[in-house]
Known about the structure:
Number of domains: 2
Low-confidence stretches: none
CATH class of the largest domain: Alpha Beta
Strand order of the largest sheet: 3-2-7-19-20-21
Mean pLDDT: 96
Largest sheet: 6 strands, mixed
Distance between the termini: 17 Å
Number of helices: 11
Structural class: alpha/beta
Shape: globular
Number of strands: 22
CATH topology of the largest domain: TIM Barrel
CATH architecture of the largest domain: Alpha-Beta Barrel
Radius of gyration: 20 Å
CATH superfamily of the largest domain: Metal-dependent hydrolases
Amino acid sequence: MGGKALVNIGKIISGDINSPLLSGNTIIVLDGKIAAVGDKGLLNDYQLDQVIDVNGTTVTPGLIDSHVHPVLGDFTPRQRTLDYLDSSLHGGVTTMISAGEPHTPGRPKDPAGTKALAILAHKSFKNLRPGGMKVHGGALILEKGLTEEDFAEMAATGVWLVGEIGLGSVKTSEEAGPMVGWAKKYGMKVAIHSGGTSIPGSSVVTADMIIDINPTVVSHINGGTTSLSPAEIDILIEQTVFPLEIVQCGNIKTADYTARRLAEKGQLHRIIIGNDSPSGSGIIPLGILRTIVQLAALSDIAPEQAVAMASGNTAGVYGLNTSLIAPGREADLVVIDAPIGSTGVDALAAITAGDIPGISMVMIDGEVRVLTSRNTPPVTRQVKIN
């Protein structure tokens, strides 16, 4: 079977925050993975079934939403909305990571029930891929009474995420500490709520509590929706190496503060980007793109580095083989350009100017899933598929 080639690329954003722009104008895809990145001479080295002319526009890795609260299926009772996951695909999101399924109607809050929900959600989203999107569901919500044997059992079924600590009945460092230790022992990634309360039943989580609990990721450093103070954020920046998540549904001012402080320290690799939706703020299909634009336009982050915060940074934290443009990585790719009428001459200039770029194509595992996004503004230059 032949492969695919993306040609006539204007700019390639790698997703690697340390080397965010790649030289070359051609990407070769074979068997759902990136085979090579370089110039058009690569076309002579491969048998190709399809050539996609991106018409001088920009190719980025597929974006990762590091913070979603699904239930089962492409439906959310939180906002009574169907197909919200597929809508995010039209915003360039090819992978989503659950931070817990707290909006599940009648969510069980006993050890057996919370364990069963995590296993069910994990297995359900292994079988369901809305529009081809990869949804990593089944993030365990910590409830009192869970034992090490429970974590071992869940890990054996494939569960590898712990939802943001603070959503369940386990709220103190004394209660959470042993469970986090068990989770990590069995290879799980652990998120923690930070800041003030967001939904009924959640709790205030301070910087000192976060340090004591020692999670993998600090969720919504800029609040979900009530943020930690700058002084608390400084404690986490100065005293830890935790990845810090900025969300669309949070505090814009502290998002800017966090980004600028980490830029000063040369630690932009610590920022990952999520939506934290569905939430009281609604469902924002372009939320990851909006946060990328916000950081580039208002926080003086280079747009290609902002893209890396929603791709390679997150892939590294969660150990995913996607969202980096490099040989061997899953071929999850997004083609973007300046929207018609933008002051920016290309996608990166448009983002810096504060405009959301248009999406002309989304590819997942080497298969074209979207041609012309239904949610972004129309692009200046269209993709051509031969």
